[in-house]
Amino acid sequence: MGFEHVLCNFCNAEDHTVLFEIFESPDERQPPAWRGSSAIPVVRCNHCGLVFLNPRYDDERLTALYQDPQMFKGTIDPEGNSRSIANERSLRVSRFQHEVSALHRIRKKGRLLDVGCGLGFFLEALGDDYDAMGIEWSHPVTEMLKNSPLRVFEDRFPHNPFGKGEFDIVTLHSVLDHLPDPMGALYAVRDLLRINGLIMLSLVNFNSIASKIYREGFRLLGPNHLYYFTPTLIQRYLTRAGFHVLKIEYPYFGTEFADPVRHTIKIITDFWALHMVRQKKVRISPPFYGSMMRIFALRYS
Predict the structure, then answer these.
(1) Could you tell me which of 100, 216, 115, 126 has the C-alpha nearest to residue 158?
(2) Where residue 279 falls among pLDDT bands split at 50, 70, 90?
(3) Which residues are bridge partners to 297 per DSSP?
């Protein structure tokens, strides 16, 4: 109950290999929608190589998750520390300055839609350079933004209130891998963009060093991350949806998360423990180079 079995989103195959399992959190500090004791298999399609959760949360469970107001007021980070997304606004807006700078290097202005904009951190970081607006499914979030100057529409993407070819830029920051149908979402983005319009994605990179070493201890895993892409797979997705990939970047150096010396030492130490000594205790990966990827692509027809 609360789970569904799915076919591969890219090639529609039904046979796959289980890589490992991740677990819900029993921590009482977590929002109710995050708590549980289920083991969720992370699988790889035997035909195309797409990695995804199967079985995964069904629509009712996903709805409960994203409509839970505590998701944004009190969660636990991978180290077990209590966090509040809503109370970290200035910090999170400043983090998005790296994304804004990256976008500026590709396209300096235009009509922009941020899909799954959450509390609008990226929209706020954009400033006045773009004619920007957002779309967000979570009603508690849109209620929190009611008195904000940000333009945010409440809808569940890919459903949206906009016309075809209405935007120059569509951004999805850590969103595509959370959607039940990422292929369908990319087709919807294509329809929203003008010819030569730009899509900007940020995604977990399942081909990263940290992912390969830590497996179920990779810090970016979670029950709401329904898909895990590699650079090769996301390029295949974008090509099928009618995009030409311009570049893939791996933001780490120059960000507040970068501590290359300490992180490299930890990864070497943990690699020895996990793969040479065969220690069974799960170790949590550090933020590390290549764990996230940023993709720019153009609608070409």
Answers:
(1) 115
(2) confident
(3) 199, 245
Residue that is written with structure tokens 């959760």 in the block: 53
Task: Provide the β-strand partners of residue 135.
Answer: 115, 153
DSSP structure string for the chain: --EE----TTT----EEEEEEEE-B--TTS-GGGB---EEEEEEETTT--EEESSEE-HHHHHHHHT-GGGGT-EE-TTS-EE-SGGGHHHHHHHTHHHHHHHHHH-S--EEEEET-TTSHHHHHHTTSSEEEEEE--HHHHHHTTTSSS-EEE--TT--SPPTT-EEEEEEES-GGGSS-HHHHHHHHHHHEEEEEEEEEEEEBTTSHHHHHHGGG-TT--TT--EEB-HHHHHHHHHHTTEEEEEEE--BTBSTT--HHHHHHHHHHHHIIIIIS---S--PPPP-TTSEEEEEEEE--
Predicted confidence (pLDDT) per residue in 247-273, tens digit: 999 999 989 899 999 999 999 999 999
- Among the ranges given (24-28, 120-124, 276-280, 283-287), the one the predictor scored with the smallest mean pLDDT: 24-28
Bridge pairing between strands 82-83 and 75-76: antiparallel
**CA angle, corner 62, sides to 189 and 172, nearest 5?**
25
pLDDT digits (tens, 9 = 90+) for 135-183: 999 999 999 999 999 999 999 999 999 999 999 999 999 999 999 999 9
pLDDT exceeds 90 at position 25 = no
Please give the backbone phi and psi of residue 54, each rounded to the nearest 5 degrees, phi first: -160, 115
What's the CA dihedral at 131, 134, 140, 144 to 10 degrees?
-10
* Multiple choice CATH, 3-299, 3.40.50.300, 3.40.50.150, 3.40.1190.10, 3.30.2350.10: 3.40.50.150
Domain definitions of the chain by residue range: 3-299
